[in-house]
Here is the input.
Amino acid sequence: MGRLMAIEGRKNAQAAKRGAIFTKLVREISVAARLGGGDPAGNPRLRLAIDRALAASMPKDNIERAIKKATGELEGVDYEEVRYEGYAPGGIAVIVECLTDNRVRTVADVRHAFSKFGGNLGTEGSVAFMFRKVGVLTYGAGADEEKITEAAIEAGADDIKGYEDGAVEVITSPEAFESVKKAMEAAGLVPAEAGVTMRADNEVAVEGETAQQVVKLLDRLEDLDDVQHVYHNADLPDSAWQ
Here is the structure.
């Protein structure tokens, strides 16, 4: 009986996590469609949001419904984009991007997460200067780095990074991301993950209890419904995530 309850508990937890992911993806699709129109062919942000949703196994009906709500074909909720900046323990810079229908609720939740785990919410611009926006195409362990590098250079990528396990990242400017992605896919090099993100110019190493507190803060922020993305400049040991 206990084993069955444990299995059921895991299933419920997985379903809850999947639901939370879908909620965040639907919000991104909604905002992208509202700002740039419901046609993904002419809206790169919407196209990317749809790609992420399909990769997460979101049903196409959910995607279409979110677009229709955003474009006024169906009644829906208007979300606005807000960004918060602050510091985690150890002087770690954190950027929190949100989509919300209630700013008061969102800022209260974000501020509470920072204060609970030894951080503090800062003012706009307090840490943003430490980050830059880039496009990233990720190829998993064992990727053909030579072939990827050759294709990426030809496609106009800014940088290629190889890792010890054989994974490869192709870095682009935000403006070139779509064209580089298309060129890589046309060359038969489909990335495991692709998107536009924020990368810190320099990372700050933290260890021990400080690292654990940083991870707890990042996890809490990621779990908030209104939070879409969390970026930081922490260089964390693997043990901190356990």
User: Anything to note?
Assistant: The mean pLDDT is 90. The two ends are 28 Å apart (CA to CA).
